[in-house]
Specification:
The protein is mainly beta. It has 2 helices and 25 strands.
Length: 334
Amino acid sequence: MLLATLMLLQTAPAAQNVPTAQVHAVGETVAVASLEDAADDPAIWRNARDPRQSLIVATDKKAGLNVYDLSGKLRSTLPAGRVNNVDLRSWRGQVIVAASDRNDKANAKLALYTLDTKAAKLTEIGRFDAGAGEAYGLCMYAPRGGKLYAFVVHKAGTIVQMEILPEGGAIKADRVRTMKLATQSEGCVADDRTGLLYVGEEDVGVWRFGANSRDALGGEKVIAADGKTLVADVEGVAIAVQGTRGGYLVVSSQGDSAYGLWRLPDLAYAGRFRITAGKFGATSETDGIEVSTAGFGSGLQGGLMLAQDGDNAPAAQNFKLVRWADVRKALRLK
C-alpha cells in the first residue's frame, strides 16, 4: 500500500492534467471475508430470460470464490483457496467458470467450475497444469465454432493458452500455446467477436495478441502506461461491447484510482473517469473490473460495470456496481 501511495504522489500531477469525469456507484457487494488485500476480480453471468436474476462471481484471493446477486447479497461461497482472477462463459449447455489458481506459487493451475445458476452455487470440475510459475491473471475466449479457451497469465509475464475440452462425460484442459511479456502482468480480456487478446503488463501498458491457438506468439504494445491517460499499475482489463467490432477497451489505471477507455477497433483514446464518493463510496486502487453493455432490468438497462474497491473501510474490500449508462453520459460517448 505504501508503494502504491508513493506511485500515486509521483504520477498524480501528470494525470491531473488529463480531464477525468466522475460517476457514482449505484450498488455494492457484501465485503469479502478476508482482510486487507483480498477482493480482486469479478465476472458477470447474465440471465437472458430475467436479467434481474443475473449473478456476479468474484474472487476473495485469500479464500476462494463468492457468488452474489445484483443487489450485492452473498449467495454462496466456495472455499477454493488462493484464486486470483475469474471469468466465465456459457458452453455446451453449462456455465463454465475459470479461475487462476495460485495455491502453489511455483506451479500455475487453471481451476474450472460449473455455475448452477438457479442455486447460485459453484461446483469444481478440476485443476489443470498451466506451467511453472505463479498463476495471476485469467480470461476466457469462446470463438465461433464452439471451442473454449482460457488464458492463464503468470505473475512473471508468461501467458499460457489452454483449450477446454470434453472428455467422455468429463471436462479437461490442455496447454496449446505460450506467449511471454517481459515483466509482471495480470489483467486480460479476449474479444470473442474479433479473435483478439488484450493483456496488461503492469508497469508498461496493454499488449494485443491474436487469441487463436495458431496465431503468432508475438504481441504488439497498443496502449502505454504514460502516467497521464493510464497510470501504472495497469490492472483490470474489460471490453464494453458495441456492435460486431466496436465498443471500448476499459482499463483500470490503478496508480491514480481511475479508469481509461480506448475505442475499438482502432484503440483511439476516448476518455477516463473515476468512481467518486456517493451513497456506496468511492473506489480506489482497483484491481479487477468487468463490463457488460447488455440490459439488466430497471435502472441498469444500459449495462453494468463492476469494479473492485481497494479501500472499503471500515469493512473489508468489496466490488462496486456502476451503471454503464452513467459512464457513457459522463464521457459523452456515442
